[in-house]
Please model this.
Amino acid sequence: MSANLQSHTVDSHTDVKIKKTNALTRWTKSLVNSKTGTVGFIIVLFVCLVAAFANHLAPHDPAAINPAKMLKPPSWLEGGEKEYFLGTDNLGRDILSRIIYGSRVSLLVGISSVILAGIIGIVVGLSSGYYGGWLDTILMRIVDSFLSIPNILFALVFLTVFGPSVPTLIVVLGVTNWVAYARIVRGETLSIKEREFVRAAKSLGVRNVTIISRHVLPNVISSFIVISTLSVATTIILEASLSFLGLGVQPPTVSWGGILSDGRDYLATSWWLATFPGVAITVTVLGIIFLGDWLRDVLDPRSQGRS
Amino acid sequence: MAVLNVEDLHTYFKTEHGIVPSVNGVSFEVKEGETLAIVGESGSGKSVTSLSIMGLIDAPGKVEKGSILFEGSDLTKIGKKEYRKLRGNEIAMIFQEPLTSLNPLFTIGNQLSESIKLHQKVDKKTARVKSVEMLRHVGIPRAEKVFNSYPHTLSGGMRQRVMIAMALSCNPKLLIADEPTTALDVTIQAQILELMKKLAKEHSTAILLITHDLGVVAEMADKVVVMYAGQVVEYTDVYTLFSNPKHPYTKGLLNSTPKFHEIEEELESIKGTVPTPTNMPKGCKFNPRCPFAMDVCTMNEPALNETSYDHKVRCWLYEEKEAVI
Amino acid sequence: MIKFLFKRILEFIPVLIIISFIVFSLVFVAGNPVALMLPEDASQEDIERLTVALGLDQPFIVQYGKYMLGLIQGDFGRSFRYNTDALPLVLERLPATLELAAASMVIAIIIAIPLGVWSATRKNTSMDLLATGGAVIGKAMPNFWLGIMLILLFSVTLGWFPVSGRGTMAHLVLPAITLGTGIAAEMTRLIRSSMVEILSQDYVRTAKSKGLRDFFVVYKHAFRNSLIPVVTITALQTSTLVGGALITETVFSWPGLGQLLIQAVNTRDMAIVQASVFIIAILVILMNLLADIIYRILDPRIKYS
Model:
């Protein structure tokens, strides 16, 4: 069998068949082979587990104020206390516990807003590409308009109007991010629309909705997964930025951007306040980027074989 | 005297699947003013041979063994700087794809005068005059205008003429032409070959011609090297090759070419494909496709032997009896 | 060329109309700002009188029409906080933001071009891994955090640069590095992948076969070709650059548009918010146009159509 496989590697058709039958094995193998992919996968899995079991993992109540333990340095430094591994903030709250709880908001906002953006983007992109005409013209002008306003600026205006809260944040980040999906989905739709099988289906009188869901959607799904993954990374940064500016997640909900914002005022004396939440954001985003790059290599046949 | 003498050249590529010996012990020589053709299917190692001579094999490839004597000096031993002085000056090269071999962002003149300025150490003005002269020389009409044009405005044939002008601009002793006409229309092919022949004769330039087309070989070559799977399988002069081919592979190639065949007879194609480097057969590398394969062919590899004067063949059919044991 | 420019500028009009509509709708939904403008002890009558005086009791479409009419005449409304026209306030802050953006761009280019080209020509070596790894980390760091860390190290601990403000070159260094790092990271990745592809092109082999020095092969023949996709994608990221500038300005108290905007957002000074969004959008559009022009200069194959 293995000899047979090897002799056929040049033949792309056979290759595709083999790939499909052993999809799971192939994915696992490819993940193990890609060092950065493995690192990314482990980081993302770790952050997800931390978020899910935050209440079991956190050594302290993230909101518990303790005036006796204000601004304690990390446990391994002079003056640090054993039970506060990453030190405490200006209100005596445990930084490690706050970072552990902060992962929840980051993931919640990051993932839900990307799903929302994906839904808007797919609907707009599909309609625009499939129906074309004036609808396409108008929708694409709207896309251009959104591209001309920095995401963070749009989010700022939106949050000023509707007031900052987690649900608003999810909506606003969803509404600012849909443009990328709309463009890709539209492009794919346009090219698939011209393919033989779609024309054949159309000429047989198959309903538009059926054509879209049967033929177009499955073809855009891999680009969709890749952009979504990388988009979660940028959204987590955007959420942190907004929370840092005081317009994102509001206390008492803990967020990484929020902890950082608190820590900024104590930079001269207590560097750990602002440092560790940033490390958490960077590592998480790094993991997601690695995972996304690996997914792109696996899902996009055009990038295969390149490194 | 030989301009180029390639001796036992080995060029290997290191890949994930192990070491691939693209060129595996190739020897031949090209004399002044002579045209030597290397014939073979794609994957036979003929292009890698030419790039090895140019010193353009990049990692993960490497010239592992053998020597390349150019006018007496071994190119595998000279430094980068000396190599650069030869390249485009003493040894020039024309590539297969005229459409992609010119940089789309610079004018023809810019790219042509570039090597003239570099190797002949002349100023911009002189280089320009020489370039335009070269363009006229290769039969380009309105040379002044073409000098200022970008490559995308020219046809494939015109671009190949520009490539020839570029290659010959410094009067090289050796011109390497890798499938120079493959990408062109048939009528243009003949013109380009004629042009190369004429210019080579004028300056007594030696040509190393890489091709898979026996028609081109008949038209251009004095000597022929037939390559298969990284090795030379037959090496002789062009007349002997066409009148008395010995290696079954050469015979197969000739049989599959319409020009050299009686009309009544049917064309035959060689069965199978060139083996991939990771999947080399044991013994003679041609044995799975050879109609005359014997037991010995699947076990031991034949050597390249001179079977008659100036005619070398790598085949058990022509081995001396004692060598078989 | 002029025809092409004209056509592109005409295309801006619908985009600007859509932006004005989005922004105006958001502000309309935000509700009556009059209460914020008057002293806290103002009576209900006062509020109503001012509402009528400002035309804020009229239907959406009438108010939007008036707003558009104002925009055409360059009237972006009045800031109630500063009690002057919003546009001059915004334009006054613009040079500081542009200075920061330009400096960051220069830093990004100085880092990204050699690093990207260098790692592409040494593909898959440990040095390449180091460069690409650095680029990914640069991309993963939120720039406000990088800014704070730079302040911590270079201002608080070492005392080399001022913590905040604008004026001397020393003031510019940290904000420009903060904003420039993210751009440099993205640009390095782009240049590397573009160069890797270009270096395998036939014309690069031709250039080598002429005996040109590696430097000329890489920087004359390969680099210019690789710039074409880089310019396009970098231009598309202008809005990210401006967005980053807004946050960086807040971190370093850089007196630019971002700082004005964040203040305006906090005080709900909507005229300034609207004017800033508009000016930033125009800036982004102009940058994209500039990239389009550079793209056409770089690539002779493109016709102005």
Summary: Confidence is low (pLDDT under 50) at residues 321-325 of chain B. Residues 186-203 of chain B form the longest helix (18 residues). Chain B is about 35% helix and 25% strand. Chain B touches chain A through three residues (CB under 8 Å).
